[in-house]
Amino acid sequence: MGDGLYLSPAESTAYRHWDDRTHSLFSPYVDSSLQNKFWDYGGDAIVDTNRYVILTQDRRNETGWLWSRLPIDMTDFEITVEFAIKGQGTSTSGDGFAMWFTKERMQGGPVFGNRNRWHGLGLIFDTYPNSPHRGFFPRISAVKNNGNVDYDLNKDGENQDMAHCNMQLRRTPTETRLRFTYIKDVYMELALQTQEWNKWTSCFRISPYEFTDPPYVGFSASTGEVTDLHAITSVWTNKLVYHSRTPADLENERLRAFSDSSSNTWWNKKDDSDARKRESSSLFQMLKRVIFFIVWVIKWLLLLVFLGGAGYLGFKYYKKNTPNPYKNRRMMA
């Protein structure tokens, strides 16, 4: 696994995958009664049957959610979600959205439209920094909670996450998708598609969170003083079936899964070297643009000076070599 590419476990010979329609969602999303057999939506969420389920519009102070009606009772699974974050804001936008795997469902609150002190795992896509941080935003993190810990919104959950990465999610050259893979007792991984269709970049790969109960799957989003449209286009869930799950198989799979854990294509809170590289690259690109602009200005200034000088010399030459009719009339008189 190199060059920032992500290999789905479904492509491995150790697995087979089966579609799970109870936790999948596609257009038109609802039936004639505006309901879905396997999903509920609420808050400020609305359904655009041709495009997506909008969790929040690009308006202030909205919260919306989308939750599965059934818990995801699978040992190993993979969920691919196409989502959209967009709006009119260019310099500031927010607040973000989250994907949840929790014991409870449909309980609104301050954490991107969901309750605080949840039981389970949250994948948080935070697009607006409430305080200074290393690295840039958006910041994508995995945060677990046993129901007793307050998520620190003022610090954007800093030092509360299991792992995180930083990645651009707005104005991307292709549709944005996430792929969350959970292999019990082996690993869990979040990968994202942001630059090219079906080209995945790993955000993090870590030891899996242990669910005490089969979790519901949910999505929620919120806006405040800054705004964005947050929407879910599709959810595709697959059950992953091991050909064998002996202790030796699991240990071999763990060794294989973390064989390149030092690779800079896996960004986590213990090694954000790749994020620093991307920041350096962004600064380098910005410096290149500034230098190009300065060279462009100097080039045009020199051209204008040259044209002005040529025009002035031409005028002087013309004046010198053109007879003065008034002077000629005086001489004739």
Topology:
Layout: E1 15-19, E2 39-43, E3 46-48, E4 52-56, E5 63-68, E6 76-86, E7 96-102, E8 119-126, E9 139-146, E10 163-166, E11 176-183, E12 187-193, E13 201-206, E14 216-222, E15 229-242, H1 247-257, H2 273-321, H3 325-332
Antiparallel strand pairs: 1-15, 2-5, 3-4, 4-15, 5-14, 6-11, 6-15, 7-8, 7-14, 8-9, 9-10, 11-12, 12-13
Oligomer: single chain
Following the backbone from N to C, one meets helices and strands in this order, namely EEEEEEEEEEEEEEEHHH
The biggest sheet, with number of strands, parallel, antiparallel or mixed sense and barrel status, is:
8 strands, antiparallel
Quickly name the level 1 CATH class of the largest domain.
Answer: Mainly Beta
List low-confidence stretches: 1-7, 261-279
Molecular shape: elongated
Strand runs, count: 15
**Mean pLDDT, rounded to whole units?**
84
Radius of gyration over all CA atoms, rounded = 29 Å
Membrane topology: Single-pass type I membrane protein
Subcellular location: Membrane
InterPro entries: ConA-like_dom_sf, Intracellular_Lectin-GPT, Lectin_leg
Protein name: L-type lectin-like domain-containing protein
